[in-house]
Amino acid sequence: MALGQNRKILQIVGYQNSGKTTLVEQLIVQATQEGLRVGTIKHHGHGGIPATDSTKDSARHEQAGASVTAVEGAGTLRLSIQQEHWELADIIAIYKDFPLDILLIEGYKQEHYLKVVLLRTIADQVLLQQVSNILCVLYWPTYPLEQPLPYPAFSIHEQAQYLDFLMTEMRIKS
Question: What are the φ/ψ torsions at residue 82 (nearest 5 degrees)?
Fold first, then answer.
């Protein structure tokens, strides 16, 4: 199915080193094993341009000032587009013509899509008030879950349970 037609969008949010990328990887593996096509968007929230391999031709084209670069090999297309600032909606629009079932977004805390919130410490709890559309929470042993939350919550060590919950949600048609 094409993105924009019954596709699911899920955001993974949390502070640095909370396990966002690991969770996205787990979801990609699970979804692809089930025959679903997955796209991802990652917000590079640490400032600066994400590192690239400067020896690759596409990176050299980008560094030379090209606004859009692409390289294809063995069925893989890597695309890079340069502009002053990107809104998430503009990036999602680029993905609309790809035949995807699920789009996973890592970061972009203030956007409005369904979210998985990762909590590592009590200081991370502020995220629960700062973000919208929380689907569930994954928490680390270092987060003191002292009272039930108003949405499903899973220990980061309950991988089978939270992956089952999230994949069930991802299979529901939009």
Answer: -105, 135
Q: Which residue, 124, 130, 131, 132, is CA-closest to 156? A: 124
CA atoms of 35 and 15, how far apart (whole Å): 31
**Going by DSSP bridges, is the β-strand pair 68-73/38-42 parallel, antiparallel, or unpaired?**
unpaired
Write out the H or E segment, with its range, that includes residue 139: strand 134-139
Residues 151-171 have pLDDT tens digits of 999 999 999 999 999 999 988
Q: What proportion of the chain, given as a percentage, has pLDDT over 90?
A: 59
pTM of the model: 0.85
Q: Which domains does the chain have, with CATH numbers?
A: 8-49+88-171 (3.40.50.300)
Which residues touch 108 (CB under 8 Å, ≥6 apart)?
Answer: 11, 13, 41, 43, 88
pLDDT band at 41 (very low <50, low <70, confident <90, very high): very high
